[in-house]
């Protein structure tokens, strides 16, 4: 579950505007905690030879289903330290990890709801980790294995930055 | 679902939570801006002009609708009811939050359908409750109600009254109305208790005020008379408009007077002391001006001095109202009668359809039965039923006769069968022929008397055929109940004895002079 940190977006803005050094330091600190998760998540994505052959990118005339390319999918996993656009309920993510590509998202979640059956999902070697909507084979698995350490560290980094910023005023 | 995201740190901007209230407040502020625009508060001239145009447009549209309604009312012979209807609509709009733009066409439609002002008002009111309660828009509700009034209840299904289409069809309009009342009564009051309802009520009131302010004079007068509250402002504008119109009329007629007073005729007349041309012209123009002003500012409903105009209806109006109500009631009765008649017809048709279906089922059953293995009587009976179903009277008579004959025949056969004595055993007197007895007795080595009285003992000398014969004789004599001993002989001995002797002989050994056994059995010759 995400943690709500009120004023985090304003703090990032204020840091960027009035204390760029502190902003950069905070950012670097957060990146330091998020990068290992991203790296781990990328590692969980199958190589092209391990992915179902029909799913791997190949020359077709009409392709509607997303096709998998390991390097592309790996590039799609990353982190974001700027606020996202608020959703309909008004929630905006200040710090988040993402799995952007469609093929990567398929690898992440295929069989999560319908079960590992049929001709497609059993061909993915990775096991699911996590629970409910946070269950997956790559990004969610890496986040689950981290056991909230990165989140705690990010919160701490932001709180530290806020304290420093308020102290410097 | 292309992008998956794990939000680690989030923040709520609180947009949605306040969104609805914002919307309402925005709507309200827009309406107040309009009103403020009308009052010239805090708005630029351009905005005032813009508002003036909009207000004028709204006013024109409103007037059009009012004119249509008035014409419709007039055509129904209820022209004198127009002020009352207008006032009712205005009050209902203020109370319910439904704009008069919606109420006027609704009233027109209901009036055209019912022909009664009272009934239309009642339905107009009920439609508001139904609309609020069901969420169906007001215009649709009014259309459905007016359709239902003339017996078309097809559109009522969507209100979820818990009635089937068949039930709706058979219900009278009074029943429909009471069902609606039971389901939706008080919905409008409940809605107006909510914030949305209150906002709507205020918006409607503001819109109505805006329409009142609309008109050609608004644009120029708004900036000059900006202060004060809206109601006072409206009153002022009305007063000013009347005065301005008076002024315009005075000026126009003043020009007319000037034109005539400066004409050649007037100049010539001024030279003649006996000519009263100027005074005559002045009197004529004055009377024209007066007549114009009276027609222009004619009071439709209110007081002219202390004299009430359009408020109290005269005896003629009352009579006309009574006549219209009576006509409407008669029409409703006629409609109800038509509906009842139509329902009776429908019921008849349904009964016929049902009977027809039943007959069909019977016919199918008869055909199926005829294909099976049935008796002659049953067959004729089924054919007779079929003929009756088909209405074939001649065949039915013919078959009926046949059936009667068949039943008579059947009864005769039955009586014959009952009276037939029990059939004796055809073999009861049969005896064995003597030669057969003699042959059997001689074959078995017994006398004929022995053969008849005692079972024949088996003998080793019997051939297979003789053994069978013996068995048959013994069976005949009832000897089969006795145990039959079978002895098999081997080398002149019964097989059992022969086997025992052989076994003893084989098992004995040693030397002894004599072994004493009864009947020399087991004796071994040494």
Please give the share of residues in helix of chain B.
over 70%
End-to-end C-alpha gap of chain B? 116 Å
Strands in their spatial order, largest beta sheet of chain B: 2-3
Oligomer: heterodimer
Find the count of extended strands of chain A (DSSP E, 2+ residues): 3
Strand fraction band of chain B?
under 5%
Give the overall pLDDT of chain A as a whole number. Answer: 88
Kindly, what is the distance between the CA atoms of the first and last residues of chain A, rounded to a whole number of angstroms? 33 Å
Q: Main sheet of chain B, how many strands, which sense, barrel?
A: 2 strands, antiparallel
Poorly predicted regions of chain A: none
Task: Explain this structure.
- The complex is a heterodimer of chains A (169) and B (526).
- With 169 residues, chain A is mostly helical.
- Chain A has one domain.
- Chain A is 47% helix and 9% strand.
- Chain A has six helices and three strands, in the order βαααββααα.
- In chain A, strands 2-3 form a two-stranded antiparallel ribbon.
- The longest helix of chain A has 25 residues, at 20-44.
- The model of chain A has no long low-confidence stretch (mean pLDDT 88).
- Chain B is built from 21 helices and five strands.
- Residues 17-22 and 35-43 of chain B have low confidence and may be disordered.
- Chain B has helices at 15-39, 45-75, 82-96, 100-114, 117-134, 138-149, 165-170, 173-184, 187-193, 195-213, 218-224, 230-261, 264-271, 277-296, 315-371, 376-390, 393-419, 434-444, 448-453, 464-476, 495-507, and strands spanning 4-12, 302-304, 307-309, 489-490, 493-494.
- Chain B folds into five domains: 19-227, no CATH class; 246-312, no CATH class; 378-419; 439-486, no CATH class; 495-526, no CATH class.
- Chain B has 526 residues and is mostly helical.
- Chain B is elongated and about 195 Å long.
- Chain B has a two-stranded antiparallel sheet. Chain B has a two-stranded antiparallel ribbon with strand order 4-5.
- Chains A and B meet through β1, β3, α4, α5 and α6 of A and β1 and α1 of B.
